[in-house]
């Protein structure tokens, strides 16, 4: 399923870029994120607890940053296993455009699920994925804008 959107963030692009590469900020903004640990400059390990319809699951997985064009864009990819609930994997292409003192963050993502999760139906999974993406980027926007105001 494909998801896309954009956020206007009240901070310069270099601040937004730094936040997109800060594991602590990402951990705070990812819905249900329990842990996010940096393993290298481009690899992170994560555990996330999510609920999709009647299924709740803890996912453990890897997150990789690639196609890095600092401070303009990158691809963030992830794959996680949720035990009996199944698996989830996907990626998001993130692009930053500076507009005055603000940054336009555009994202385009694709995700796939398998196992028990896949039995829930694409409509429920799609709407939940869209909601989680919007929740992440709204929280990210608020966190970055708040930090920028504190500086």
From TrEMBL:
- Organism, scientific name: Rhizobium oryzicola
Q: What is this protein called?
A: Carbon monoxide dehydrogenase subunit G
Q: Which InterPro entries match?
A: CO_DH_gsu, START-like_dom_sf
């Amino acid at each position: 399923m494909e998801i896309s959107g954009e956020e206007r963030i009240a901070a310069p692009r270099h601040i937004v870029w730094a936040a997109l590469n800060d594991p602590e900020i990402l951990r705070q903004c990812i819905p249900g994120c329990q842990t996010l640990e940096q393993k290298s400059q481009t690899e992170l390990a994560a555990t996330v607890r999510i609920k999709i319809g009647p299924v709740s699951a803890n996912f453990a997985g890897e997150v990789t940053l690639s196609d890095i064009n600092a401070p303009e864009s990158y691809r963030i990819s992830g794959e996680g296993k949720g035990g009996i609930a199944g698996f989830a994997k996907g990626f998001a292409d993130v692009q930053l455009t500076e507009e005055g003192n603000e940054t336009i963050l555009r994202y385009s993502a694709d995700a796939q699920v398998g196992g028990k999760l896949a039995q829930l139906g694409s409509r429920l999974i799609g709407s939940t994925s869209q909601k989680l993406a919007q929740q992440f980027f709204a929280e990210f926007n608020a966190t970055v804008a708040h930090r920028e105001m504190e500086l």
